[in-house]
Structure formats: structure tokens, C-alpha cells
Amino acid sequence: MTTTRDAGEIAVAFSRVLRGAGLTVPTSSTIAFAEALACTGLGDREETFWVGRTTLVRRPEDHELFDRAFRVFWEHVEAGDLEVIEDEPIDLTLAIDDDSLDGDDGPDDAAGSDDPVIELRFSATEVLRNRDFADYSAEELVEAQQLMSRLRLVGSPRRSLRLTTSANRTNRPDLRRTVRAAMRAGGEPVRRHHLTPSTRQRRLVLLLDISGSMEPYARALIRFVHAAVAGRQKVEAFALGTRLTRLTRELSSRDPDEALRRAATRVADFGGGTRLGDGLAVFNDEWGQRGMARGAIVVILSDGWDRGDPAVLGEQMQRLHRVTHKVIWVNPLKVTPGYAPLARGMAAALPHVDAVVEGHAIDAIERLAAEISEP
Questions:
Q1: 333-358: per-residue pLDDT in tens?
Q2: Alpha carbon of residue 371 to chain centroid
Q3: Count of CA atoms in the C-beta half-sphere (13 A) of 103
Q4: How far apart, in whole angstroms, are the C-alpha atoms of residue 170 and residue 74?
Q5: End-to-end CA distance of the chain, in Å?
Q6: Does residue 242 fall inside a structural domain?
Q7: What is the DSSP string of 256-292?
Q8: What is this structure's pTM?
Q9: Burial level of 318, CB count in 10 A (0-12/13-18/19+)?
């Protein structure tokens, strides 16, 4: 078999084929399949078959469908249909046509096979969802921008001091509306009105590390930050490098090219060093403690590599966590096999973080959006 795909890419592609066929394949099973393939290799078809069935199939009734899907999928692998084309891996989904089971087969079905027809379809969008941002071309970054602009970044609501009408009679009476209704009814309080505290959207604060170590990912993550700022209200954006730079105004334009151009003009230290602790100290002193971070959801997008004193970063993270609703750290390196938070900055920040998520691809950003929505 000749293919440029490694075990991980084969595992992801085949898992998606099985999901398209209707099988339930959790991410943990895909990871187990990839790890097993890394040990056994891809040279022996029969061995790969049993590795896949052992790790990906949980119910005996799914064996038959798995066998057919594997047979068709592996024929495409051996034929070279999964080769990288122009440096872009082609992803696969699976469609099953059950019309052949109805007995109304065409002339091409003279063999009389009762097996459903399995077809493979190519999806460039699914490729981008799982492809590492560091491998994106300029054209793919534009496509990624469109995908990220569809994300809904809705945090859990917070209670407001403002009151709104309530149908619950146990809430606070609305005397003004009750009296007005009584006057319209000849002075009789026919209907009593009540009030309850309203809710409002929590502020979302995004702090993007633009240091040299983050450069392969920052060019994609800045597009996510723009999509967040342009797509909803109450979003603040900052760049963290050798200094802290507020980018909310520059990224508020709905034109991505214009927004990124203005942000690039504003940021003078892109690709340089980073002093996360000092930058967070400025944010806490000038913005966070004044109310921007109070009750907000704060997302830090960084690999945790810091040239400053880790004790300073730990102290500032503690200050930040004390006033926020939630602190989420997005680390693109978390996807690396065997990853551990060994960077001094990451280790210092970890005790004051509510969640650490990956940030290397579109599907990781989708998981980030889900994490932001969690109460």
C-alpha cells in the first residue's frame, strides 16, 4: 500500500466513514485506533482490520457494517485514492444507499447482491476542521475564517439588577403596572403583575499570545478573535506579547481583511517575545479590576511559554481568577501526544484556570465555543 497519510490521519478518516454509516464512534475509540496503528503499522491489511474492529466497534450487531465499510475504505487506500493532493489531505464521509434492498435493482445489479451500496464522498470542509492551523495555507485561512464566523459564542447568562415582567406570582409585585391595570378596570385589581431580575450576556474577554512560539497558530487564532468581536456584543480583545495591546476597536469591522489590516498596524510586537505575567498585570490594573473582567469569561490563547518570572504570572492569574466567572486557557500544544504542562508559565497558571482546551484546529475551536457556553 502506498499512501502519504500517517496512522492518525487514517484513523480519523475511517472513523468518520463509520460515523457516516451510522455507527457510534467516540473520540476515545479513534485515539485508541490511531495509537494501535502506530504500533502495528499499516502494511498488513488483515492486522489493521482486527485492530479497527477491536477498537472501533462496541456492538456485535455492527460487525457486518464495519466489515463492508472497511473493505470499501481499504480498497481506496490501496488504490492511492487517499493520497495527498496538492499538499491537502482528502477527507472521507460515508453514504449508504439502501435502495438496493427494495428489490428494484437496475440492469447493473444483475449479480443480485443484497448488500447496501457504500459510496465515499470527499469533503474539503471536514479536512479543514481537523487540520492543524500550523499547516494552513493563506487560502485555507480565509476558509477557516468563514467557518469560525458561524460559531455561536454564548456564555451562561448572568443576573442583572434590572427587573423584567414575570408570570410567577411568588416574585416581587409590580405595583405600577398593577395600579394601571386596576384603573383600566374601574379601580378593581383584577390582575396583579410581578417582576423578576432579568439576565444579561456575560462579557467575553480574549487574550491572544502573539509571541514567536505562537506565530504558526496566532495567524489563525486572530481570525477567531475577529469572528468573536464582530459576531456578538460585549467582547473585548487584547494581544499579549512584550506588551499588552487592546484590539477591540480594530477588530470590530465586519470586513475580515480590513479588521486584520488594522490590527496588524496596531500591533508592533507580533512574533517577538512574551511576558505573560507582566501583560496580565497591566490588564488587571488597567482593565480587569475596573470591571471588564468582573463576572466575565476570560479566554487566554497561549502555549504557556513565558520569558518572565513564573511567580509573577501565577500571582496575576490568581488576581484575574478571583474576579472572573470563568478562566479558560487555550493551548495549541495540548493536542501533542504525551503533552504535559511543563512550560514554566503554563505550570504557574494552571492552578488558577477552570478549563484547558486545545486550540490547534477548527474542531478544537468548536469545543472551545462549547466550553464558553457551559455554566
A1: 888 877 777 778 888 999 999 999 99
A2: 8
A3: 0
A4: 64
A5: 49
A6: yes
A7: HHHHHHHHHHH-S-TTS---HHHHHHHHIIIIIIIII
A8: 0.63
A9: middle
